[in-house]
Amino acid sequence: MPATAIVEISTPTTWGRASKAGWDKSIGALLVVAAVPTWLHMNWIALEQYNGSITAALRAALKEGPVSFAYGHFPRYSSQAIAGYAAWLLVQAFFYGYLPGTLCYGQRTPGGHLLTYTANGLLAWVITHVAYIGGSFLGFVDPAIIANHWEGLLVAVNTYGFVLSILAQWKGYFFPSYVEDRKISGSILFDFWAGVELNPRFGKYWDFKFFHNGRPGIVAWTLIDFSWAAYQYQQIGHVTTSMIIVSMFHLIYVVDFFYNEDWYTRTIDISHDHFGFMLAWGDTTFLPCLYTLQTQYLARYPTYLTRTQSLAILAFGLTGYFIFRSANYQRDYVRARDGKCNLWGKPVTFIRCKYSTSDGKEHNSLLLTSGWWGVSRHANYMADLMQAWAMCATCGFTHFLPWSYFFFMSVLLYHRSLRDEKRCHSKYGKNWEEYCKQVPYRIIPGVL
Ligand code: NDP
Question: Which residues are listed as membrane-spanning (predicted)?
């Protein structure tokens, strides 16, 4: 089949997360819900008490026994941190609810709904950062306040992440916003992990998932970096180049996210993943704690890069960003023009598909086979990994801990590609098989 061929095959099916869960999925959910928060706490313990060595922290845990180790080393709660975090949530919720923004549409849900969102995240991000950074320079706020309260904040965000996940499950069972898009698996554990509702809302517009995925965690990401950079400055009297480079990579990633918030409503998180522990705890707790590990590490254990190392890391990371943005843009660009446009100076090629939703209606879509989507089926994931590699490389190669982000992203994105392809196959059937034939590589062309 030539690369420019257009095949039309209708696939009358719907898609989404598992509808039934047996004991294997329940146990898997339980293990992840127990293991990942423990990992997050172990990182903090390693940074604070074991010179950034996760292996030393693990060895100590084995020697002391898990219960006495947890009692002696786990972070303690602080009422100041709880009050600060509660205020943070309220301020971000206020911004989300009341700041002006662009009205945008998500992807059609399996139940046939086309939901609207108000993209005002960039404005919320700008106001928050101007207030915090401006306040720091004017002397109203200690710029290292987040870093100095990190222990208590870790407890506060964790608690909120768990409470939110329980509330989301309870709402899904008893007060679902869109019954047609709700999934109940028969396993309370699996439902807790994967989520019951696809788009839980307060009223018609206040979207639980959209708010929690973006605002409390991602707005905080760059503030946390800033605070750890200030902490480094207060400790050693200067900010290292490695800290500046990694903070700049994070800044680009976060600003890109908010600048393209409209696009985000059509990604897997918003379009397909249900709102359970994975997203509720993941985005409020895991994201701000794990994704900032490099600045947390550098603030305590500064790394000095040579000029050549700095330039090489910058070049690699920025190339990753360029591919990431360009691949993510191409899909939206071509779909918005129904394939009537050029990419890289040539008319685009694609596979035209039909799919049906559970209300029985048929819809059209297209799978792009040129541009980055013709290079590999997830070139955007490859580009994300390039950025992750560059971010971690700023911390040098002596410790595993600051590389956690790269290893986590590799597992996450590979697993996500498997999940996504399973879902795309059930949505597009033979058209998806045809796409895989035309674009044989999953993530890295020529390798995987
Ligand atoms: P994508 O944006 O890659 O979206 C995948 C969807 O795109 C598929 O489900 C399908 O949806 C559609 N699609 C698949 N193939 C084609 C094609 N050939 N042409 C047109 N549409 C196609 O997925 P993600 O939401 O996972 O990723 C978005 C970005 O976010 C990526 O760059 C990723 O790296 C990044 N990311 C970052 C994370 C982080 O924590 N930092 C976590 C996860 C993702 P449809 O139903 O519309 O056809």
Answer: 27-46, 82-101, 122-141, 153-174, 236-255, 305-324, 388-414
